Amino acid sequence: MSIKIKTAEEIQKMRVAGQLAANVLEMIAPYVKAGVTTGYLNQLMHDYMINEQNTIPATLNYHGFPASSCISINQVVCHGIPGDKKKLKNGDIVNIDVTVIKDGYHGDTSRMFEIGSVKPFAHRLTRVAHECLWLGIQQVKPEATLYQVALAIQTHAENNHFSVVKEYCGHGIGADFHEAPQVLHYAAPELKDIILKPGMVFTIEPMINLGKADVKLLADNWTVVTKDRKLSAQWEHTLAVTETGYEIFTLRAGEQPVLP
C-alpha cells in the first residue's frame, strides 16, 4: 500500500477544495427542513457547485452514481440517492455528504441535520457520532497510527451503547477521490502498521448506529441501510497530517470541536 505524501502545492489546492466543500454545506443548511425533497436539495447544491463555485460535483456519475450529493435519512447509513419523491419530515435525522473537485483536487465532507423536533435518542446519536469524529481527529499527529484514531472512535461509540459500521470507512484523498489508506473506524490490528506522516491527507467519517453494526446494500447497488432498520449518523472532515498535528480543510464557518 503506497500512501501519497502531498506537496505544499497540492496541500494548498486541497485547502481550497476543502473550503469549497464546506461552503456547499453552509449554503444548503437553511433549506434543510420538513417538506422539502432531497431531489430539490441536491439540485440546489449542484447548481451552486457548477454556477457559483465553478467546481465539479465528484459524486455525479462516479461509478454511475446518479446525483451530485449523497443524502442519507434515518436508517440509511451512507450513499443515499436524492430523489424528487423523498420528502424530509419532522423528526428525521439526515446526513448530507458532498465532494467537490477544484483544479483537479477533491474536498469531501458531510454533516448531520435534525429536522424539526427529533426524539432524544436520535439527538443523542447525532451528538455522539459528532464526538466520535472529533475524538478521532484529535489523535492525528506525526508518528501516531490509524489504530489510535479508530480506537478513540470505537471506544466512545461503544461506551455510549452504539455500534460502528465496519464495511464502509474513510480514505486517502487528493487528485483521486479515493486513495490509500483505508481509514477504518474500528480498532482493526492492521491499522497499527499505518504510521501517520506529515503530508498525508485523508477523511475521517465514522458511521455510528443506534442498534447493531450490521448493514445491507439495497437493490439500487448504492443505498446502504442498517440491517435492523435503526438509525445511523455520520459526520466527515478531510484533513492533513502536519508537522505538529493536523489541519482540517473542510471546517465550516465558526465550527468548533464537539467533544464529550
Question: Layout of SSEs?
Answer:
Blueprint: H1 8-28, H2 38-53, E1 56-57, E2 70-73, E3 76-78, E4 93-102, E5 105-114, H3 120-137, H4 146-159, E6 163-164, E7 170-172, E8 179-183, E9 201-204, E10 207-209, E11 215-217, E12 224-226, E13 232-234, E14 237-241, E15 246-248
Gist of the model:
By secondary structure, this protein is of the alpha+beta class. It has a single domain (8-248), classed as Creatinase/methionine aminopeptidase superfamily (Creatine Amidinohydrolase, Alpha-Beta Complex), CATH 3.90.230. It is built from four helices and 15 strands.
Give your account of this protein's structure.
Helix content is 27%, strand content 24%. With 260 residues, the protein is of the alpha+beta class. The model has no long low-confidence stretch (mean pLDDT 98). The radius of gyration is 17 Å and the shape is globular. A hairpin with a 6-residue loop joins strand 11 (215-217) and strand 12. It has a single domain, classed as Creatinase/methionine aminopeptidase superfamily (Creatine Amidinohydrolase, Alpha-Beta Complex), CATH 3.90.230.10. It has helices at 8-28, 38-53, 120-137, 146-159; strands spanning 56-57, 70-73, 76-78, 93-102, 105-114, 163-164, 170-172, 179-183, 201-204, 207-209, 215-217, 224-226, 232-234, 237-241, 246-248. The strands form five sheets. Strands 1, 2, 4 and 5 form a four-stranded antiparallel β-sheet that branches. A three-stranded antiparallel β-sheet has the order 3-12-11, with no helix packed on it. Strands 6-10-13 form a three-stranded antiparallel β-sheet, covered by helices on one side.
